[in-house]
Amino acid sequence: MLLSTSCDFEFEIVVPTPFILMLRPRSGAQQWIRSEEYKLSPSVPVLEFTDSYGNLCQRLMAPPGPFSVHTSAEVMTMDAIDRAPGAAFIEVQELPDNVLIYLLPSRYCESERFGNMATEITTGKLLGYDQVAAIEDWLRRTISYVPGSSDVPISATEVNAKQSGVCRDLAHFGIALCRSLSIPARMVVGYCYGLEPMDMHAWFEAFVGGRWYTFDATQSVDSEPKAAYVAIGFGRDAADVAVYNQFGPAVYPISQKVAVRRLEEDTGPL
Amino acid sequence: MLLSTSCDFEFEIVVPTPFILMLRPRSGAQQWIRSEEYKLSPSVPVLEFTDSYGNLCQRLMAPPGPFSVHTSAEVMTMDAIDRAPGAAFIEVQELPDNVLIYLLPSRYCESERFGNMATEITTGKLLGYDQVAAIEDWLRRTISYVPGSSDVPISATEVNAKQSGVCRDLAHFGIALCRSLSIPARMVVGYCYGLEPMDMHAWFEAFVGGRWYTFDATQSVDSEPKAAYVAIGFGRDAADVAVYNQFGPAVYPISQKVAVRRLEEDTGPL
Amino acid sequence: MLLSTSCDFEFEIVVPTPFILMLRPRSGAQQWIRSEEYKLSPSVPVLEFTDSYGNLCQRLMAPPGPFSVHTSAEVMTMDAIDRAPGAAFIEVQELPDNVLIYLLPSRYCESERFGNMATEITTGKLLGYDQVAAIEDWLRRTISYVPGSSDVPISATEVNAKQSGVCRDLAHFGIALCRSLSIPARMVVGYCYGLEPMDMHAWFEAFVGGRWYTFDATQSVDSEPKAAYVAIGFGRDAADVAVYNQFGPAVYPISQKVAVRRLEEDTGPL
Amino acid sequence: MLLSTSCDFEFEIVVPTPFILMLRPRSGAQQWIRSEEYKLSPSVPVLEFTDSYGNLCQRLMAPPGPFSVHTSAEVMTMDAIDRAPGAAFIEVQELPDNVLIYLLPSRYCESERFGNMATEITTGKLLGYDQVAAIEDWLRRTISYVPGSSDVPISATEVNAKQSGVCRDLAHFGIALCRSLSIPARMVVGYCYGLEPMDMHAWFEAFVGGRWYTFDATQSVDSEPKAAYVAIGFGRDAADVAVYNQFGPAVYPISQKVAVRRLEEDTGPL
Description:
Four copies of one chain form a homotetramer. Chain A has 270 residues and is an alpha+beta fold. Chain A has helices spanning 115-121, 129-142, 156-162, 167-180, and strands spanning 2-13, 17-21, 31-41, 47-50, 56-62, 65-77, 144-145, 164-165, 185-192, 201-208, 211-215, 229-235, 244-246, 255-262. In chain A, strands 3-6-1-14 form a four-stranded antiparallel sheet, with no helix packed on it. The first copy, chain A, has a four-stranded antiparallel sheet with strand order 4-5-2-13, with no helix packed on it. In chain A, strands 11-10-9-12 form a four-stranded antiparallel sheet, with helices on one face.
């Protein structure tokens, strides 16, 4: 599937403000960035670096006055996310080194507290993919998905107390549950085709059967196409994958627009 | 100063248990490992890897039965930790790329919540080193240091509520306060000469004036020698720098011994 | 300066052929990629990874039949390359760790053989930038720059024997001479505005005064604008920065077009 | 097998001289460093870093006068090197990203020149391990192994012209032949038990069947134990894995001693 994505931010800056943006998607196994735009107005010097998770991050100093960020991309992505019922749990000692960090608790995923709950949710399931699918399904049935209901990230413990949340919250809870079963899990932010209302999205991935698989408790299993994801950033949780981090006195976007369209052009399979 | 350090763990393993140990100190700007032992009994295959913070980690599968880990080292370390009153705050846009991760909130350091408190604690201080020194001093005066008072890591928010803690807790609080002022801060675990009671120790470092400086609110500023630290691991907080992580059914050491001695041999300055 | 760059390859593939392309420029201190296209025809799955020099590389399997690669970009680059007469030689022990690899001899830069020649060329010069400028100047006066005169990379020793070469050859020779003086030097491939005839270009950078500076013995010092470079890849020499590596039976492009235009739009300084 | 290794260098330094040493073996899949010593006399500050191949490197400034380096280790290593006749050739597009660099030509391995020779040597062999074994065997039969016959590294082309060489030379030739067949190959330096005369040793590894396998054309296939290797450094060729690099006016060791002993203690399998 060929998608066109865009994200536009407008800020009104008062004092020179350092930003770290994470708005340039990378080509990878699941997506190919065939074109891309990244424009800043006014134009300012930018340093780009690769963080420890492999994300491209853009550092800049926003000058006082109106400041806008425009990014867009044409991305070839998969027609449906991979599912793999039965894919095996990977024993910790067999995991690749760089996956181990996703077993540890993190800011918004207090995985050390959810061992019993996760065990109960997954009772009777095959170890591995089926456990994660059971967690995803449990979240879908149990935690109300209320888009726009919160601005500030909250942690799995808080989501559990609240029993509802935005996409990010459900992802945090899913990640915490997986990790408590020694299944590596990580947060993804990016675009999702067909999302309503349209916005940046967050979901999670779990490492089973030797690779990362996508899970998203906010989407119906029957929705079609259940697929069209474009990842921008990967990390342990929302603390790692903010589409922007800003330092100094708080600055909020006065406008933020996200769009995802399907392009008609037939490009064949990714 | 030349130190001899050792750490011994004994476990009684019931089912084969994956471990990730972080017990091999690395030579660096502040310390030189001139000899080292690392012995496992029974001997098992070990894979060693470097994590994303640069720590050496040892992966192994502990077999059922008694399992012991012995590490020791002779380390040349500094005679006194560096102090640098006046060392400048580094603007975010000037920080090295690999330091940026230490600005973000993490599992036990909810830095996004402590902006006001940190501002108040550091009122009137020069930006940079002096702010961190004020935080260290405030912690020393305010939070009771009670070695052995907790086993499980707690977060800065919880330490603030409790107003007391172990070395790890004070470090978490200090880190959260620094990061809320856009000062990169990280956790260090390792050995500290003269600690009473002797145990593994935790402290923190802040990045000011272009490098990392050591801070430790558990030690009196007047104690002599205020120095002799041997770092084993660096990370965002205790979640990253456990001297061991163990997976599967919980296993606790039936014995743990830490020793730090000063060697008489005159080796001159590091 | 705002440049539009493009590169088009057409191949006629006989058997399925693995390719590793290096055709996606990265934003960095000297350039900002504000838009970019990367299209393959037919469309095939691509894996992108970051190599040990920080370059983005695209892995794919080209299927039998016609296969074309189109990349283009709009890049904001500097109006003039930085010059820094007097910038100091950095003692080896003061060099950043990740620069050290650029002191070692490499496939096409047998730096261990050029110590005497480099010393003679730079006699009387200040250590550092001025030595490299003297090397660049010596190459410009001594080695005939003959675009299109060779297809296969040759080494500094061979360039020295031949006394002429393409841009890549002059860069190899310059790199070898710098390294023999313990000055880190690396190869850059990319686009150069105003190049005649237009083609992919190669130049070199030397690390003096604490950063990398651009040198290019193929361009007159008086040419205007002496600047407009867009880097695609960095490495020790041509072995590391091929815009494509192809494995299996040799395949040659049946067509290769490179274009660099200046865009009129006034974008202000980078 | 439990080995004791040691390496001692003595230098007479005239002017302050930067060194980069690579003398600290790392624990890995094939070896476990259970104790280690690293002593410098006089003691000087040392910075240790991890290079892009994963080797630990020690940077220091040797002061004028006598300067000695002592390293020793007790290492548990395998009783016999793994052999895997039939292990498959891995298609380039299936290789791990970080292995790809070992397909490229390098300073002493001009692999782009040996395609025909390698094809001929391996005629009729299964692709993969058996090709490398054929290359190893061909080297053993064809190129005279003459320990101590050269001090300066020479390249595969030069070894081919000379038809004899030291361990390093045979390794370079083997690596170049493998790479010309799109088989990743890398150089290893370290210790070899039973070597005569005892010295630092060099051999090579090829990546087939999904992992690195050891090859050494200097050793008889029948020698017993054909095993006991302790690796210190990995790289593309000798340019990457010098046990020391020294900068400025050349300094040669006035004494160099290498020892490898077998320890009696029964430690069981690695």
